[in-house]
User: Fold these one by one.
Assistant:
Number 1:
Amino acid sequence: MAQTDSDACPVSEEAPACMQTLGVVRHRLDQSKPSDDVVAEECPVALVFNGISHAVMMATPADLEAFALGFALSEGIVTNRREIHDLELICHSDSVEVHLTIAQAAFLRLKEHRRTLTGRTGCGVCGTESLALLDLQPEKVNAVHAGAIDHTSIQRILAELPQHQPLTQATGCAHAAAWCSAQGEILRVFEDVGRHNALDKLLGWMAGQGIDSGTGLVFLTSRASYELVRKAARMNVPVLATISAPTALAIRIAQHAGIRLLSFCRPGGFVEYPLVAEAPAA
C-alpha cells in the first residue's frame, strides 16, 4: 500500500480533476456580464473490499488513499490499520475505484454487516439492511487532553482555518476537517464536498501517520450529524468541534462516548453540550 501524503489522486492523467473553470454570466442588479467561475468536482468513488464492491460514494477526487483507509476504520470494517494488507487506486476519466485487500476475519465481519450505501451524502442510516445492523452504541474515548481545549483554542482555529481551505476559497462548496492540537494549532486539513468524506480523509491520514487521536481535537466546518460523532468515537477522538448545530442523536452519542461536543463555533464563542445526560425536570 502506497504511503503518500499527496493532495491529489496519485495515478494516471485520466484521473478526474478536483475543480474546473466554467464560463458563466454574472447578474448584479441591472447588470449582466460574462465571467469565469471555479466549481468543485465530485465523482463516484467505489470502495471495493477483497474484490466485492461495498459502497459508492460521491466525493472530491483527492486524497483517496486516506479516504479509503479512514472509511474502513471509521465504519468499523477493520479494527486497525494492520487489517488492511493492500490498497490500490484505479482512476477512470469520470470515476475512481479503490481496491482494498483486508484480512479474512475483517472480510467475514463485513459480509455479516453488508450495506448498500450507493450515493450516500450524509445519512449514515440510509442503505442499512435492517435496524438490527444499525450500530448506535459508541466506544468510550480516552480523553487525554480534552479539558485543555478552551475558548482560546477554538478562536485560534477559527482565525487560521480559512488559509488552509484552498478548495473552499476557490469554489465555496467544500467542507473541511482539521486535526488540531489542544492549544488550537492546525496540524492538517482535508477538504471534500461531503462532510463525512472530509472527516474520513482526515482520520485515514491520522491512522497512516500513527497519530494519537486522544491528544487533540477534530474541527469540522459542518453541522454535527450522528455519523460524524460515531466515526469520531471509533477513532478515539476526545473533542469534536463544529461550526454549525448538532442533532439530538449526535449529542446523545457524544454523551455515551465521553466526547466533548462543541458546536456553533463562531468568533466570540461556542456551545458545549453536557457529557452526561441531565435528568428530566420533575
Note: The longest strand covers residues 19-28.
Number 2:
Amino acid sequence: MDKPQLIVMLTFNDMTVDNAEEIFESCKHLPVTFWGFKEKPIGRERMKNLFSRMKQCGKKTVLEVVEYDREGALAGLDAAVDCGVDMLMGTKFYPEVAAGCQRAGIKYLPFIGNIEGRPSVLKGDIEEMTEEAEKVMEQGAFSVDLLAYRYPGDVERLIDNINKVCGGKLCVAGSIDSFRRLDVIKKLKPEWFTIGSAFFNNKFGDDLPTQIETVLKYIG
C-alpha cells in the first residue's frame, strides 16, 4: 500500500461502546474500508448483526480479541468464523487459531510480546519480539497486532523492526492519539493502524465523522 489504512475501532478502553451500531450508521458514508470492535461486552447475536451491516455497506470487518490464554483465543476464533470477519486480531498466537483462520479465509494477526491487562500493556525486549513475530508468521499468522504505543521503550524502533519482518503487513494498534504519533505511522508505513478510544476522547476534533475525515486527510 502507498499509505497506511485506518481501521476504525468502535471501542473505548478496549471495550466495545454501547452505541456502536448508531455510530457506524453515522459514519458509514466515509471512505474508510476497515471497521471493527472488541469481543466484549457485546453478545454474539449483536456482534453478528453489526458485522453483517458493515458488510452490507461494503466494509471489511475486524474483530480484536483481548484474551491471552488458549481458551480465550479459541473462543475468539469461534466468534470470528461465526461472524465471517475478514480479520481476527489479538490473542496470543496459537497454532489451532492460525489453522482455523486459514480454513475460513480470515487474516490472523496475533499479539506479540508480554501483554497484560485490559486496556492492554505491552512489555518485552525488541529483539525478542522481532524473533517472535518471525516465528508466528512462519507458523501460520498473516501478520502481527502490535501494541506499539502501549510499550514504554523505543516505539519507533519497535514498529520499524516488526514491520520489516512482516513485509509491511503490520497493524499498529492502541493509543494512537496525536498527530505526532500519526507522523510516525506515515513515516514507517505499516499496512494498518487502529484508532478507537482517541476518537471518543475527541483527540482529533469535535465529532467522530469529522475526526475520521481529519485523520484520513492527514495520512493521505
Note: The chain has one domain: 5-219.
Number 3:
Amino acid sequence: MPKKQPYDLPESFYDFAMMPKFNEDVDALANLAENEDWEYRFTASSHAKPILRNYIIHTYGRIAEEKKVAVSADENFCCWNTGLITSTQEQIYMLLSRNKIDNLDPYWHFSKWVRRGEWDLNKFASLPDMAHYFEDPSVLVLDTRKELRMNVEHVVADNVERFPEPLRSMNSFGLQNLVSGARDAAWQRVRRNYKTAIPQYYQGQVQLLVPLALTDPGRADLALVVERFSDFYRAATCLTLDMAYNNARQLARPDRDWLVP
C-alpha cells in the first residue's frame, strides 16, 4: 500500500496521524483548554480523560468528512480546529508535522496544540473552521407537539446490560413495564421543558437524549435516544449516562441538570 499523501483524510484518526503519546497529549490539551471535567462518572476506563480522548478522535472524523484540514505550502505541516477554546476564549488547533519515519503509513505526526494567535499557525494562508454537524438548527430542539413511539421490548432486550445492576435480574415483562412508565414520565418532563432533551451526534445524524429515571424520580439512570421523523419521534435505544455524555459532548458541552460527567 502506498504511503498516504498530505491531502489524504482517512476516516480514522489513527490512519491520519501518529500520536504515540496520546494520553500525555490529551492531558496537555485538557490543561490548555477551558476547564472541563473529562472523566467518566459511572464507567471504568483504561484511559485518563476518556471523554476528551473520544472527543478528539470523533471530531477528527467529522473534520475529515468536511475536509477542514489546512496544509502548509511546503506540505510539511497541517492543522485543524479542535472546537475547544482556552480560558480566554482563544481557539485551539491541533498542529501536525510531516512523518519522517519511512516504514510507517500515516503522512502526519502530532506536533502540539496551539492557540489561534500563536506564531506556529503563520505557516497557513488560512485557518480552518471547526466541525459543523447540522444544517437545520431545529433538529437541536424537541418539538413538543409530536408523539413518542417506542418498541419497549426491543429496547430492553438489546440493552439490558446497560441497566442498573439491581434491575438486570428482573424478568423481561416487569422491566418492560418499568421502562414504559419511565418513558411516559420522561416525555411529560421534556414536554414541560423542551430544553431537557439534549442533542447528540451519531453516525451522521442529530438525535435527542431524554432522561430515563428507573429507580429514583429525581435522578436519571439511562438516556433514551430519540430519533426525529417528519410526524413523530422514535425511541431507538438507551445509553448509559457516560455513553450519552460522550456523544452529546461532540456537539457542545452539555449545560443541563441531568447529564453531567
Note: The longest strand covers residues 77-85.
Number 4:
Amino acid sequence: MATITDKNTAVVTGASRGIGRAVALRLGATHHVVAVARSRPQLETLASEIRSGGGSCDAVEIDVTDAKAVARTLAGVRADVLVNNAGVGYMKPLLELSSDEWHTMVDVNFNALFHVTRAVLPGMVERGRGHIVMVGSIAGRSAFAGGSCYAATKHAVMGFSESLMLEVRDQGVKVSVVNPGSVATTFSRRDRDTSWMITADDVADAVIHAIDTPPRVLVHRIEVRAAIPKKG
C-alpha cells in the first residue's frame, strides 16, 4: 500500500469529507498523505485532487472500528503525523437513542482512537519524533441536551489526549487536540442554518497551526469557534 516518497507521511482518518478532507488537502502540499475512510469513491476523488496539485496520496478504504483491519492495513506505515478525525454523532435524548447508535458513537469517536494510534505510535516512539492530532469538540468540556453519548465520547477524547501527551512527550512525540465549535459540514443537520458557522478549512487551519510549531513548542489544546454565534 505505502508509496515510496522522500516526504514526511501524514495519516488522516475520516478523510473522505468535511474536516478530514480539508486537513488532507492542506497536508498534501507538504506531506505524503495516507487518507483513511470507508468511502472508496470519495477517497479516490481526494487522492486525485492531491495528486493534481503535485502531491502524493494513498487512498485507504478501511473501517477504523475494526482493530484487526487497522493493525493489518497500517502496519509498516512510517507516520510522522496522525490526524485522528473520524467521528459520528446522533444527537437525540437518551430515551430515543438506540443501542446501535450508542455503540457506533463509542466505537468511531473513541475506540478507533486507540486502534489507529496504537498502530502508528510505536514507530513514532522508535524514531523519537511524531505528532498526533485529535479532532475533538467543544462538547468535550461541556454538555447539552441530546448529547448524552456524543458529549461523553468527546470528554473521553480529552482525557485520552492529555494522558497520552504526558506519556509520550519525553519520547519526542507531540499530542494535540483541536476542539471545534459548530462547523458547516455534512455533520450538521441539513435543515439547519450553517451560514454563521466556521468551516472545515477553518478547523484545518488550526490543525496545521498545531503541527507547524517548532520542535521545542507543543500546542496541546486549541478551541476554535464562530466569532459571532447565531442569535436565538
Note: The helical segments are 18-27, 40-52, 67-74, 99-127, 150-168, 200-211.
